[in-house]
Structure to design on (500 residues):
């Protein structure tokens, strides 16, 4: 659909370079009542690339089941990993910051350490906090080191951008109106005169 | 020369990381300039075989090595590259294209066409597979079929300038001038700043040969003359069109005469310091004598 819209806009923009017969041919091609490319009937819209309606797909029980199972399969290992990290890294201090930090940062720097009575100096960082800070803080740096994201982009970067159906319909309607109200003038009508000079041809 | 220097830079380095970097740089240079040099590409295979970097350049280099191996019928390296790509990315269209190209290099067009067709069933929105199919059909001299496939492709990828251009030349080969004119006008729409498309359209209109199409051809020639004053082909086309229009009684003789003079003047000017000036003079004398003949007939 995006290709039809792009072609239509380009054709309208550069129509002045086309002779009359070619222009009329294009106009018919785009806004013909029965077979025009900008007609919004369902058959025509689904002509090129088959798209799955998201709402309909959720209403189908087998598709919904697959999606839920996929999510559970993703969430399960993540929870297990989280629990393992918590048991592994909680309860000890790994470093001491060389500068003073406000009290509000205690939950960020000392998670996994619970002390009764007098609290620990805020500059000590717990193992669990250190792990979390490194994992999230160095994410960009890690992506730079191994080019995983780049390769994934290469795989999926060529997929066409999808425009929601409603928006496409609206854009097509607008485009059709633009075609109907278009004022055509051939730019090359008097090109001979322009080339030779206005006074030389009578 | 620059290519050889770059190649030497890859081979003289001893540090492995630097060697990989330079190799990838060299191979991306070969790819960007579409050079077909298996003699320089294949010796670098060992560098990439012993290392693996997860970057786009690395995988593109592997593809390039596979093509180079196919070029010299080195099945061992070609299979190694295909296996590596398959292991990393699974069964995808890039792999199918490689296999198809492998068959094409061995001139087994039927096998290549079968690979592309099967792949198109799985990946219907892949332009490269369509384009290879068209290339194969052209190689098999089946231009009619190539035009059909290309039209199918252009129904989905309407703004692909390169494919419209290909379609123009296929239609010209088939002597289908009306269809070629449509495709050429589509090129004008897609890129109106390229004067060659206007010239192409003018030449197709000239080939159609009716009075209306000749008038259109003259207008387009004039437009190109206005845009590009250093192209002899335009002035020659303008001469031909004006000369052809002279046969029609309804055409304006005055405009034709002035345009003929205009084109002759510019052609002479372009070839002023050339040894081919005598040929231009002969051509102009010939065309003017013919024109006179038609005028006397009228």
């Amino acid at each position: 659909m995006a290709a039809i819209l792009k072609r239509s806009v380009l054709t309208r923009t550069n129509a002045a370079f086309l002779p009359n017969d070619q222009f009329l041919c294009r106009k018919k091609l785009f806004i013909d009542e029965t077979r025009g490319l900008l007609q919004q009937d369902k058959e025509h819209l689904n002509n090129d690339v088959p798209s799955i309606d998201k709402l309909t797909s959720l209403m189908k029980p087998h598709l919904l089941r697959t999606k839920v199972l996929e999510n559970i399969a993703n969430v399960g290992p993540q929870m297990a990993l989280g629990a393992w990290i918590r048991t592994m890294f909680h309860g000890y201090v790994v470093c001491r910051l060389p500068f003073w930090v406000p009290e509000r940062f205690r939950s960020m720097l000392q998670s996994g350490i619970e002390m009764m009575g007098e609290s620990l100096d805020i500059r000590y960082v717990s193992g669990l906090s250190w792990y979390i800070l490194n994992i999230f803080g160095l994410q960009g740096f890690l992506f730079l080191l191994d080019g995983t994201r780049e390769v994934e982009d290469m795989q999926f970067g060529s997929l066409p951008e999808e425009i929601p159906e409603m928006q496409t319909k609206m854009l097509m309607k607008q485009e059709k109106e633009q075609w109907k109200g278009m004022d055509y003038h051939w730019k090359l009508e008097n090109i001979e005169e322009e080339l030779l000079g206005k006074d030389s041809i009578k | 020369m620059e290519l050889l220097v770059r190649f030497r830079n890859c081979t003289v380095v001893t540090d492995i990381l630097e060697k990989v970097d330079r190799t990838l740089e060299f191979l991306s240079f070969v790819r960007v300039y579409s050079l077909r040099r298996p003699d320089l590409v294949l010796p670098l295979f060992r560098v990439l075989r012993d290392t693996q970097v997860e970057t786009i350049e690395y995988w593109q280099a592997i593809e390039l090595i596979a093509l180079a191996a196919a070029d010299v019928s080195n099945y061992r390296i070609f299979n190694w590259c295909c296996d590596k790509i398959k292991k990393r990315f699974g069964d995808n269209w890039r792999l199918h294209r490689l296999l198809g190209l492998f068959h094409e290099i061995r001139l087994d067009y039927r096998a290549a066409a079968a690979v592309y067709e099967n792949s198109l069933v799985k990946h219907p929105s892949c332009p490269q597979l369509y384009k290879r199919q068209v290339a194969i059909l052209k190689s098999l001299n089946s231009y009619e079929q190539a035009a059909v496939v290309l039209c199918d492709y252009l129904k989905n990828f309407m703004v692909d300038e390169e494919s419209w251009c290909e379609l123009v030349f296929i239609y010209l080969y088939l002597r289908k001038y009306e269809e070629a004119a449509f495709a050429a006008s589509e090129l004008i729409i897609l890129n109106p700043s390229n004067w060659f498309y206007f010239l192409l359209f003018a030449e197709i209109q000239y080939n159609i040969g009716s009075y209306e199409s000749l008038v259109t051809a003259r207008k387009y020639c004039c437009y190109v003359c206005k845009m590009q004053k250093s192209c002899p082909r335009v002035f020659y086309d303008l001469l031909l069109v004006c000369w052809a229009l002279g046969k029609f009684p309804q055409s304006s003789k005055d405009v034709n005469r002035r345009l003929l003079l205009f084109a002759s003047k510019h052609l002479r000017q372009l070839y002023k310091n050339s040894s081919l000036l005598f040929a231009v003079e002969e051509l102009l004398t010939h065309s003017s004598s013919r024109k006179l003949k038609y005028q006397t007939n009228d």
The beta strands of chain A are 93-96, 124-126. Confidence is low (pLDDT under 50) at residues 44-53, 153-160 of chain A.
